[in-house]
Design brief:
single chain; 440 residues; alpha+beta; Deoxyribonuclease I, Chain A; 3 domains; six-stranded mixed sheet; magnesium; Endo/exonu/phosph_ase_sf
């Protein structure tokens, strides 16, 4: 059974500081999935062109990337498979510093720009980026990423520092002025002070990761900054409200990893004993009695698995809230005791996300093991995934329906070329009759 659920449309930006490690890559992608992210801007993925497609996991439908090297740079834009997005133009940087994806998002022209700015004060980077954005007119602009610059020395730095602004900051202000862009987080939290990067050598917190846009400011219902767990940067989020319908599958699958759970084993043993005591087998056949017991155990398993999942997620939420509070305290006090507490909480969070990543890898291995000796099923599964991505987000022009005696053909009339495009299985005489009917 499949139902549709209206959900918030969330965009994330994250400098992950390398995704070459398979476990870390799975943790990052699992974190984004659990956070219900539908578009993700990734910086510093440290992956070359041949490795970048590894980011296309179960929930990612499209991957656009500007690769760097195996040890530096590289940016990518990940789009959820449930999101209707048709790209028109993609502009990448040879050095893996930015990527611009121009296309239709939910029938709205949009430019998704993900940047990883240089650490040095290079004025030309933002000037060139501004020129690219100005050339792509007629679309909403969303720029996100690691700017590597502090736009406000008083608000975006835990230790305010006086001095002249860098040339890059001047270029950023000029770009936002020319394009009419605004810092969305600061617009929604004008009196807030949160940071996205921590420098251990300098013991300083700064906010150098931003989402800047114009049209999305009025459509945003929330903008938040996460915690520093898997990288030296935090993920930043932008929520646009309930604008997406996500199909929710109600098909149940047994979580076989529960077999290693001692609590689950005890539950099954107790339930089997309870079923034997309360159900007399004298008046029924063994097959019927056995099928009824399986149905009963299935109901108990369905209730037990979500309970365990909710408990684990609740533990993660509690630890993240504790980490957020500790980081806020440490940004003001800079004391060693608080820093040690932060390290301990990070360790606990990493353990929990390691388990989730291991389970995700286990499910992948299980799927390939089950279909390994059935190449037809594996091929059908891959073809189904591919076909689901070849959707048509919308049609422009007029639709002409021509009824025939046996078949019904649907044609799309292109408004410019007036050409007819269609699909049919039979040709020859049937096609001649169709053209004759069209001339009439």
């Amino acid at each position: 059974v499949t139902q549709s659920l209206q959900t918030d449309f969330k965009i994330a930006s994250w400098n992950v500081k390398g995704l070459n490690n398979g476990i870390k890559r799975k943790k990052i992608l699992t974190y984004l999935k659990l956070s219900r992210v539908y578009i993700a801007f990734i910086q510093e993925m440290h992956m070359c062109k041949s490795e970048a497609l590894k980011l296309k996991c179960s929930w990612v439908g499209k991957v656009f990337y500007s690769p760097g090297t195996g040890k530096s740079r590289g940016v990518s834009v990940l789009i959820h498979k449930a999101v209707s997005f048709a790209e028109t133009k993609v502009i990448t940087d040879k050095g893996g510093r930015f990527i611009l994806v121009y296309g239709q998002l939910l029938d709205t022209p949009i430019i998704l720009c993900n940047i990883y700015a240089p650490n040095a004060d290079i004025l030309a980077f933002f000037h060139n980026l501004s020129q690219y954005l100005l050339e792509l007119e007629g679309a909403q602009i969303v720029v996100g990423g690691d700017f590597n610059q502090i736009l406000d020395q008083d608000l975006d730095r835990s230790l305010p520092r006086r001095g002249t602004e860098s040339k890059s900051v001047v270029a950023i202000r000029q770009m936002t002025s020319d394009l009419g862009l605004n810092d969305i987080w600061w617009t929604m939290h004008p009196e807030g002070r949160e940071y996205s990067f921590y420098s251990p050598p300098h013991n300083v917190y700064t906010r150098i990761d931003y989402f800047i846009s114009e049209a999305l400011v009025n459509n945003s219902i929330d903008s938040s900054i996460g915690n520093i767990v898997f990288s030296d940067h935090v993920p930043i989020f932008l929520c646009l409200g309930n604008i997406l319908q996500i199909p929710q599958s109600r098909r149940w699958h047994l979580n076989v990893s529960l077999i290693k759970d001692s609590g689950f084993i005890k539950l099954i043993r107790d339930e089997i004993q309870f079923y034997k005591q309360t159900n007399n087998r004298e008046d029924t056949t063994l097959a019927t009695w056995w099928d009824a017991m399986k149905a009963y155990l299935r109901g108990r398993i369905i209730s037990y698995a979500p309970f365990k999942k909710k408990a684990a997620n609740k533990n993660i939420i509690t630890l993240e809230a504790k980490l957020k509070a500790l980081e806020a305290v440490h940004s003001h006090t800079k004391d060693r005791v608080t820093l040690n507490k932060i390290v301990k909480v990070k360790y606990k969070l990493n353990v929990l996300y390691n388990r989730k990543a291991e389970y995700a890898l286990f499910r992948i291995n299980q799927a390939y093991w089950e279909m390994g000796e059935k190449p037809s099923r594996l091929l059908a599964y891959r073809l189904k995934q591919k076909d689901s991505m070849n959707h048509i987000p919308g049609l422009k022009g007029t639709v002409l329906v021509v009824p025939l005696t046996v078949h019904t053909f649907v044609f799309h009339v292109n408004a410019r070329s007036k050409s007819l495009q269609g699909n049919w299985e039979r040709t020859g005489g049937l096609l001649k009759n169709l053209l004759k009917r069209l001339k009439e």
